UniProtKB/TrEMBL annotation:
Transmembrane segments: none
Organism for this UniProt entry: Dicaeum eximium
Methyltransferase recorded as keyword: no
PANTHER family xrefs: TRYPTOPHAN--TRNA LIGASE, MITOCHONDRIAL
Protein name: tryptophan--tRNA ligase
Gene Ontology molecular function: ATP binding; tryptophan-tRNA ligase activity
UniProt similarity note: Belongs to the class-I aminoacyl-tRNA synthetase family.
Length: 135
């Protein structure tokens, strides 16, 4: 949610890809792609953002913490990032999502958005369930 130097961002993408492959992810058995090259993520985030009310987003603790660290200003990116996460989950009609405890509320937002969308337009998105990591 903060601006990055293009060269640093490109290197971060390469480093993250290398780390994923080094962990043993086999690209012959899974899809590995750059999300930013799939326009449907941003398109669905826009649609879902038009169905999500601002007070719901303002109650997320991540918004409050990050806003405090940005001199109480906060950016639109901080506010809309959880909707983008919901779009990432719902775009692929995910039914189970591995999350850490710090992301449970964001997954609950994705569940709420899916239910709201389904109520308004008919059953389309499955309501995803959390798989909590046990560390």
């Amino acid at each position: 949610t903060l601006p990055k130097e293009p060269a640093v961002l490109r290197q971060n993408i390469l480093d993250t890809t290398a780390a994923i492959l080094a962990c043993g992810i086999d690209p012959k058995k899974c899809f590995l792609f750059r999300q930013s090259l799939v326009p449907e993520h941003a398109e669905l985030a826009w649609i879902l953002g038009c169905l999500t009310n601002v007070p719901r987003l303002l109650h997320l603790p991540q918004w409050k913490m990050k806003r405090a660290s940005q001199n109480s200003e906060g950016t639109v990116g901080l506010l809309t990032y959880p909707v983008l996460q919901a779009a990432d989950i719902l775009l692929y009609k995910s039914t189970r999502v591995p999350v850490g405890e710090d992301q449970v509320l964001h997954l609950e937002l994705a569940q709420d958005i899916a239910q709201h969308f389904n109520k308004k337009y008919g059953e389309f998105f499955p309501v995803p369930k959390a798989i909590l990591s046990e560390l």
